[in-house]
Amino acid sequence: xxxxxxxxxxxxxxxxxxxxxxxxxxxxxxxxxxxxxxxxxxxxxxxxxxxxxxxxxxxxxxxxxxxxxxxxxxxxxxxxxxxxxxxxxxxxxxxxxxxxxxxxxxxxxxxxxxxxxxxxxxxxxxxxxxxxxxxxxxxxxxxxxxxxxxxxxxxxxxxxxxxxxxxxxxxxxxxxxxxxxxxxxxxxxxxxxxxxxxxxxxxxxxxxxxxxxxxxxxxxxxxxxxxxxxxxxxxxxxxxxxxxxxxxxxxxxxxxxxxxxxxxxxxxxxxxxxxxxxxxxxxxxxxxxxxxxxxxxxxxxxxxxxxxxxxxxxxxxxxxxxxxxxxxxxxxxxxxxxxxxxxxxxxxxxxxxxxxxxxxxxxxxxxxxxxxxxxxxxxxx
Amino acid sequence: xxxxxxxxxxxxxxxxxxxxxxxxxxxxxxxxxxxxxxxxxxxxxxxxxxxxxxxxxxxxxxxxxxxxxxxxxxxxxxxxxxxxxxxxxxxxxxxxxxxxxxxxxxxxxxxxxxxxxxxxxxxxxxxxxxxxxxxxxxxxxxxxxxxxxxxxxxxxxxxxxxxxxxxxxxxxxxxxxxxxxxxxxxxxxxxxxxxxxxxxxxxxxxxxxxxxxxxxxxxxxxxxxxxxxxxxxxxxxxxxxxxxxxxxxxxxxxxxxxxxxxxxxxxxxxxxxxxxxxxxxxxxxxxxxxxxxxxxxxxxxxxxxxxxxxxxxxxxxxxxxxxxxxxxxxxxxxxxxxxxxxxxxxxxxxxx
Lengths: 381, 352
Known about the structure:
heterodimer, A: alpha+beta, Butyryl-CoA Dehydrogenase, subunit A, domain 2, 3 domains, four-stranded mixed sheet, four-stranded antiparallel sheet, 11 helices, about 15% strand, B: Butyryl-Coa Dehydrogenase, subunit A, domain 1, Butyryl-CoA Dehydrogenase, subunit A, domain 3
């Protein structure tokens, strides 16, 4: 065990920091879920990132990455959040589909889909959930019927983040007549393809952050299927492993918020309830514990291990720490907490509302606890 | 940057797990409790034979000269079996302290001997009567006294495998070893209490899992019900996010800066909270059985209670984390940062 950075890692941090200082927009961009303008401003930022080769540093060079390891990725993320850089509008693509494509895709698929993903030319949404298939994802009913070199897609997808403005979606479909975990395939479709209708759904923060998608005889080439026919469930679970385990929520996100919370406390402690200091310290501990855990996981993966059901523990931990952290901030703000326009850099109220989604998306925390109990602890189903 | 244990460390942990698992079984606990005792000469001989009492003794003093991370792995396994002997406080805290003060001391030559330690933060001393000597504090100095040079009053504890004493003593009747590093002793003790907490927690979860697989109600194993699953899953989450903190604290303890102390304190709070959550969940999952003396879950709850409040209360340790958070930079680039010389100097001035 060696918990210090090598000179190369320190130099890499300095390089990332210098580039971000020169390029991060001075004014925050409008939220990518709020308006088309906000979305396109974030796409522009993705292009800027790509111009510095920062689109997705862990990917192989030939697909638009830098071929860096997971520790370097963590350093990049730390600097990214420290710099207050814009949110990643293509997070479903680069953090979830990207690693899955690298693991399961053919060379031709990687060449076709990864570079435009890394550059923001193509922004992705996830189309897995359906009105009757939420936590019970194996209940998916949308179908893919093979027709020559094409698939014909039909069905109703819902709760697709970014789908209102995104370009592509990766969806879960089944062969008609197949049941549960069998007969499913992961298939990509353009969100502007004939037969696709996207309806925005407003979130509790008022943004049109997610959408429902209707597919009526949407025709896509069989090239758009990732992995073998019928292998969809297996691939989805691998994606979910990345999602819950490592990539979806960088520790840096919470460490920035915990540091800001410490500042908020210093500014308000004259008037605030002294008991809240313990919660401020707790938020710092939680963010630090999450970071240490991810460093541990990254080291293990680099030594050849595979991510397992412990991914579910991560998802529970970050989603709960996020709510606790922001609730503490609102308690410090007291009667100011409900005001939509808040002084200072941090929008504690908006981030609190966003945090409330954490225990729901990417597999509800109830399902994650079932996974831990059954697959880590070995309790019966 | 590498957050993995070495192959040697993994083997070391495996050895400790096997040895302690074989020699400190539920059967052993019951026999010790029947005898009203907390030692087993055969087990202690095996512990000594494997070198576990020599881990933190420097090589030139005849020890293994290993580090706190190595010993923390033993402490975790000691927690897993609720080890009654004072291995952790003696070999983990007292021995390296004495070795730093008096590397040639005759006591260090006997790997079977235990040394008790009376830290100013603790009102009581574990296993003081059987220790070859007791390390005592006055004005920052460490003194060494044999049990018969001090007045020991046994005090009963809720933990049936722990034996505690109040110790009164006179400096005239003890060996003055000079100014000692009581802060380092506390850091080591808190770190190893945290490591034991991980073991206590994991054992409590494992016991409950076994029971929940067997015990049937409404025609199904109770472990198939989500309400039961979620108790245990939540406890496991707490363990998973305490373990890396304990490991990092062990790896960084030698830096002796405000960050290192904060991490030890974080480890102690997080691991013993995980143990609290796990032991209480374990009793709950065992139902009325869990509230009976017969089921061993209570041993883990009681040890957790003892370790939570000794070697610095949660409030004491929270204050050390606050000192780090409010005097040093925080943020994502600061996870492994060290205290700058300027910051340390400022702190010394304020402290003085």
